[in-house]
Amino acid sequence: MQYADAQQAAGLAMALGWVLVAVVLCARQAGLVTLGPALHHGLRLPGPVLWGSGAAVALYAAQSVVVDAVEDAPNRVTVLDRPVLDWMVAHRSPGLTAAMEAVSRWGGTNGTLLLAGAAVVVLLVARRAADAAAVAVATAGVAVLVPLFKDVYGRSRPPVATRLAVEPDASLPSGHALGALVIVGIVAVVLVPALRAAWLRVAVVAAAAAVVLTISLSRLYLGVHWATDVLTSWTLGGAWLAAVVTAWWWAAVRTPRRPAAPGRPAARTRSPQG
């Protein structure tokens, strides 16, 4: 493991910086502090942007803590790595193995890219360019984050004897888990506001969570990742997803309304809240 200590320091600095900004904004909102004109206008962030950026920073900081714990193993964070692997190996069966291999195959790079590509095309046809851009940016981030952090960390995979798949690259993070969280997550995020029925929204969110969980568990079952690999993938991927969703919401609310044609009411700009 490389650069874990430096990343943990960076994550802590980002978290402290966000807390400082949040305290100043809340104090200004309560009238406890008065800022100059430049800062007064420069520090006007809507609540969703503040809390969305906070979620991104918190998840990144959590990821840096897990990675540092992996570097300093054994400890309370990594203590479950070996027991989880042993439990998965002990509960294998031919039928379950075939199912998990199929999940892992379709939940890998090809499957998630196919989902992202299809979502972008459908959204463009529906003239939802901002939503299509959010899916494209989130997907591009996955393509950068996974190989970058694999090279930075260089963590070894579980023993070859426990693996049911051939994986030549580094173990952390799990590309399957991170890619599923980000891509399935962003597709669900842009889809939910278009659904009017509350039960459909709940169903989409539940289905997305189930897909991400199943794909992640398939990597543990096949013995190609440690449990902390998946945990790191969820926190790192969650940080990126939170950043993209926050930017998507901010862009949507700042988009000016189109001027109305003569004799017609002004067209409303669709917001992420639907």
Automatic annotation (TrEMBL):
Domain of life of the native organism: Bacteria
Domain Phosphatidic acid phosphatase type 2/haloperoxidase per the UniProt entry, residue ranges: 133-245
A Pfam family: PAP2
Transmembrane segment boundaries: 106-125, 132-149, 177-195, 202-222, 234-253
Keywords linked to the UniProt accession: Membrane, Transmembrane, Transmembrane helix
Keyword Transmembrane helix: yes
Matches recorded under SMART domains: acidPPc
Membrane found in the keyword field: yes
Protein name, as recorded: Phosphatase PAP2 family protein
Protein's organism: Pseudonocardia spirodelae
